[in-house]
Protein 1
Amino acid sequence: MINEQMSGMSFLSQNMQSLNISSKNVKTDLKIKLVTKAQHDFVFMSDTRLNTVSNTYGKGDITKKAGFYGYDSFFNSPGSSRGVGILIKKNLGVTILDTRADVIGNYLLLKVKLNGSQNSIIIGSVYGPNTNEMGFFDGLENSLAGLNAQTVILGGDWNLTYESVPAEENIDVINMREIPSRLRSLRLKQIRTRFNLTDPYRVLHPNKRDFTYVPNDNRLTNRSRLDFFLVSTNFAESVQTCQISPSNVKSIFDHKSITCSNRKPFK
């Protein structure tokens, strides 16, 4: 899934469960190392929590570490909870045209142009609310409309299921009485419809059951697929792989990562 030719791109999305920047932290160093190890072209991070009075130092330190592995860093993480970030491979020749972000760190959208492409694309890291905060969806929808690009690629922990059907019929949950929120799933569906977005994992694996959130407590049997990409259908047609990692690194990440790659050039 590593980008072997500039004609294709690979993406990784990972719930970070905090980057702990208040002091030098071995776990933070390991997280940055792990998410950059495969050298995906874009890395979407959620739940970064860049939150203390040491923010300036901490962000600079993380930016330096990511830079050592060949990435430019972009963050929207102003508080002690939530927060998102995007890492972009330096050798891609990406130009940032415009940016949109909410005030509490739920999403970061970058309108970019890739070296050699004529059209711009929107890439975005998302950390959806775990309560029915409709303002998040309103802001995301308005930001996508304002940036206005032909291709959209979003990744993150949405804290909802792709479909709004009940738990007993929903392929993205198991051993749960209810899905996280039918209301949130329905609101996201409105955004998907407006911008013609789809889930590449479901396009490639329409009947496969796998999950990104597995509780660390072995006594708990509930599972859910809360982390996924949403991409424009024109991009989905070129997607070659979209996979959920076989396991999460316990005590390092509390969600499995997802990866997506295509092998068709952006025009």
Protein 2
Amino acid sequence: MTRTDLDLAGRALGGSVRAVSDDLFAPVESLIQPAAPVHDPSAFGSHGKIYDGWESRRRRGEGEDDWVIVALGIPGVLHEIVVDTAFFRGNYPPEITVEAVRLEPAADPLSAAWTVVVPKAPAEGSCQNHYEVSDPGIYTHVRLIIHPDGGVARLRVLGTAVPDPRLLGGRIDLAALAGGGDIAECSDMFYSDARNTLLPGGARSTGEGWENQRRRGAGNDYLVVGLAGPARLSWIDVDTTWFIGNAPGEISVSVRDIARAWREVLARQAVSADAHNRFRLPVGVVTDAVRLDVHPDGGLSRLHVYGELLPDTLTGLVARWLGVGPEPALLQEVW
């Protein structure tokens, strides 16, 4: 599996629209939905053609531009902005600018001092417009400015999650995307993405979990999770909710040691379908990555790995967040 950036603004991770200049023709909340935009050429409403996206009215004044502010679901370092103008052909913005800022939770983004991360650039209609971001800062909000008006179907803010480490003390879910975990490797994602298992909240169907195809040969399926950092583990929860006839028969758990070798810490255990399967791990297990093997195959909705970050790990993460020192080695990729 090739590791890819997260859509930090996506609704699935808790992204939300905080403010918008105008969305008369199409509601701005569609901008951050995870599903691809759709289009019905025959659909019209009281304000005109119905679009799956955000569309502002036509600007008539000089120097006026429309904009939207999105709070990221997880703070992070931005790598690429995708402005998807799918189906907007005669009403897309000809140019865009993207700004970003890092704010405390209660701060007002309307009065923030924004940093330009994508200078004013041309955009095309009915396509995905990609813009590289080279700024290394950690941000919590982005502002998309469209010059002067028009429609955008989806906004994707791709990057690396850097959660506020001041919230990571004590026992936490070390595997969660919101805490800094991520999928490092997966044997098979035929039906759905393994990353779904690390999303916030519970799945609403098997499509919101991880499901592999039926294994007909030898071996078994597995996934590897890079944790938020080196940590002392307590227990895991293998959540098979919604997986009734397609849950694993058994699971086993291994961890990676300081020599980068894998060792089993939980021998094969039977799991129940459509249930939370909780297993306590041996005392003193310290690792930065966990491998879950499903025997022989089968899907799950969520995977939670509970434990505590090592004190030095947490100190290094806080130092980076506050900008009081160079990025520690602990923050390098763990796979």
